[in-house]
## 1
Amino acid sequence: MRIEGSVALVTGANRGIGLAFSRALLARGAAKVYAGVRRPEDFEEPGPEPLRLDVTDLEQVAAVARTASDASIVINNAGIQAGPGLLEEGSLDGARREMEVNYLGTWAVSRAFAPVLAAHGGGALVNMLSVASWRSTERFPSYAASKAAQWSLTNALRVALREQGTLVVGVHVGWVGTDLTVGIDEPKSDPAEVAAQTMDAIERDEPEVLVDDTSRRVRAALSGPLDLLYPSA
Ligand SMILES: NC(=O)c1ccc[n+]([C@@H]2O[C@H](COP(=O)([O-])OP(=O)(O)OC[C@H]3O[C@@H](n4cnc5c(N)ncnc54)[C@H](OP(=O)(O)O)[C@@H]3O)[C@@H](O)[C@H]2O)c1
């Protein structure tokens, strides 16, 4: 679909990959970008129109779907990493919050915007997934579980929204240089690169974005023996 002249909503648009999505949409000629943010009063980026949106708050989700009823592109980007390591003692609340935001938040926004997208000829729904949708780790097991759940949801949405003509795009990537990965000493993709490849996929009607070598390698390994993904298992 064409981005030029379109109206888009990006969740978690105040920083990181979400901010890069908003900038890329405007750079490709989007007529309007709604920035779904938890604190619109703190939003200083020129260009996007901020809307108060905590994706775990169903009333806010419904209100945003009413206000942004002219949107034909919705990007579910809001996400957190908050859970404990696999064998750590203590609370599992962080793991629950990850499910609330990454999985159920994406579900709530997608559900609310499905009729909005239908009213605009189908449009595009983009879910910001991860290489963690396909490969888990001892350090971030609950984050990976939430991204796997979000991937499963993305596949259900692909089927459910096909008839109304909605392009459902899943974006997979390894580490990206944002606040979420501060303290992780690994090579990282640039958020602008994630956004640029996602814009290309929307414009070419492609359902999956594999941003980096890690996501391409892990995607390919899914059909191979288990030790391709978990060599020490
Ligand atoms: N960075 C990576 O390596 C990487 C790799 C693969 C996938 N991803 C995914 O990419 C997405 C963006 O991550 P990022 O790296 O840009 O992280 P980030 O810099 O930490 O930004 C996260 C964004 O999500 C927002 N957010 C958190 N909880 C929210 C809620 N309940 N409702 C609405 N917005 C909420 C944050 O808003 P506040 O400012 O209000 O907290 C912020 O705008 C996430 O879905 C993440 O899982 C990231």
## 2
Amino acid sequence: MPFINMKGMQTAEFDGTGVKVSVIGVGTWSLEGPRSENIRSIRYALDHGVNFIDTAEMYGTEDIVGEAIKGYRREDLFIATKVWPTHFSYHDVIKSCNDSLKKLGTDYIDLYQLHWPNSSISIKETMSAMEKLVDEGLIRYIGVSNFSVDETKDAMKALAKNRIVSNQLEYNVATREIEDEGIYDFCRKNGMAIIAYSPLSHGKIFGNAMIYNALEEIGRKYGKKPAQVALNWIIRKGAFPIPKASNLDHMAENVESADFNLSDDDMKILDSLYRKHPIRSIASRYRTH
Ligand SMILES: NC(=O)c1ccc[n+]([C@@H]2O[C@H](COP(=O)([O-])OP(=O)(O)OC[C@H]3O[C@@H](n4cnc5c(N)ncnc54)[C@H](OP(=O)(O)O)[C@@H]3O)[C@@H](O)[C@H]2O)c1
């Protein structure tokens, strides 16, 4: 049974944590336009029941998120950020986390993620710093991003007392390599949340006529826009999409992507799109197997 929060947004447990997170999150990479508009857009999402915001030290948007969340009850929010791979030594992880905390203007990060794997620094060293941050209460949960099955297994083994709660991966209706590579199933079986980044294919699904037309046609049945259908497809797959929208109208559309349910037949039609019109993942070019 889906749980709806006080603002009418569907939430789900962030796998195995007991924490309820809105099924739609907000991405903040490559925000465009004036800072005040970005803040307005994030606040719009928060005011409409979204409580999950994703950022990263690399995006340069942590301070924007920090400003946007001022005045909201911290315990209602789920703030995720990431440490960049060149900062994976023990001391750099600690430093990056403290820098992120300052920019975010908060005492703790809900989900701290390793942004990409880095084979040149021992994962044990990196994870011992992550566990120190958990011990000190500076981060609540440890996540990874762009990790293959083998890299995730190594990361799991490198942890002494915590678990990896999530893997943030490129996933959308036209980019589904994570299913082919086995990491989608691996996360599911091991109780890790899948955070679907580039859920609108960084805007590319809107430029592909075959995909766009299929999304539009299905959307008409539900009174929904193509983006809303694309995001609902991800939610139905059990992942958390984190679309980025600098444009307030886009944000308003995105927060209304969870209040309907694509039928099994429509899911099947959308499932068939990837084989016919795949959009290649950026990440699979870098992910090792
Ligand atoms: N872990 C990683 O390595 C990684 C990599 C990439 C991304 N991410 C995360 O995932 C988030 C989202 O991915 P993304 O930024 O690559 O792209 P995305 O969310 O797939 O797509 C963003 C594009 O779609 C447009 N858009 C948003 N909502 C729309 C709507 N309702 N209708 C029409 N167009 C819409 C946006 O336009 P406007 O901005 O003009 O509204 C923007 O051009 C990032 O912000 C970041 O937090 C993580």
